Structure prediction request, 451 residues.
Amino acid sequence: MIEKYVYNFGRNRSEGNATMVQHLGGKGAHLAEMSNIGLPVPPGFTITTRTCKSYFDNKQQMPEGLEDQMLEGIKALENETGQRFGKDKKPLLVSVRSGAPVSMPGMMDTILNLGLNDVSVLTLAESSKNPRMAWDCYRRLIEMFGNVVKNIDRGNFEHELESLKKQKNVELDTDLDAEDMKFLAKKYKEIYKKALGEEFPQKPWDQLISAVRAVFDSWNNQRAKEYRKKNRITGVLGTAVNVQMMVFGNLSETSGTGVAFTRDGSSGDKKPMAEYLFNAQGEDIVAGIRTPHNLDYLKDLRPELYNELIDSMTRLEEHYQDMQDVEFTFQDDDLYILQTRRGKRTAFAAIRIAVEMVQEGLITTDEAIMRLPANDMQQILAPVFDQSVVKKAETPEGWMPEEATTENGPCETQIVKHLATAIPASPGAATGFIAFTAEEAVAISQEIWVG
Prediction:
């Protein structure tokens, strides 16, 4: 009997649930759970972690029956959406994401808009009445597929984009029009062919199979293996693969995408937080090219959408009885929840959240104690910046320290300029040099050490 490799999920229906993390991975299990509780989740299916193990046990060959089950999953998606995968009319586009049972840096990045080709992009442009969006999706697919699946240096694609913006004398991607996006798609296909000696694949099924293989292969790339070794992660079979209907945050100026937290992960304050961009997709929110909006702006501009997002966040926190990190997209007036997971927090925030959730009746005292990892308690003892001084530093004019000293005595006084504000990733107080790549950080540390 052939094993069940594919589990479907959609609104108000799912073949999985949150207890199946080891089988469906973190993303897949929570997509299934959100579907079960009636949240607006774009439908799709998850390929199990055992499939990944079978793939490597079988010398990186797809296990028997997997493609047939994937085809059934696509048919279920077509029936639910009224769209067709690999067809020119009403094309069904999907995203492909990895999803290990534990968070694992180094795994494959997301691929969006999979299923587009030279013909269906024209149909999408016509049906959406937005040619710019259609060609933007196509050029993004070529870049993501080329980089993530075929290992083409992303810098080749970014160079073409930056050159065009410079030529057009614009600053943002959103300042480029439909013809510009069409031009980029053509250039990106040329980059793809030059790098690989073959054309960008026009059959959506070929795109999908290649993407699934790439997710499996990323389980055993060097970064992922080193991370598992360093963090002593054992007993995990492999990564799951999530295939999900695309929703378009770049459909119009009234669409967008973002991330939200049900509480403040830095302070623990019971205040929902979110950052989002209009007319954006995927990684735009973390690219740092555009300044995102916050929840207050959404509340004033789109109160109904704001209320629906807050309601979804509240339901998720109450259901999971923990602070949640949520990814969302809104396509015009329709909100979609793409992912939820336990929100990361500082030790200070963890204590406050645990105590307040006991007071709110969400968890017991014993559960609160168990949620405070012993290692994190060291953060409470770490020295931190005097907040009154930090506030002074946040003035745009900069400030002059009254006295600057080191262990060896007074040092040269300097004016400190406030460039940005962010949530710290580690506890305590520190000073140092800024590096924008891992290689640059290593080089700077070696210079300091030698010096």
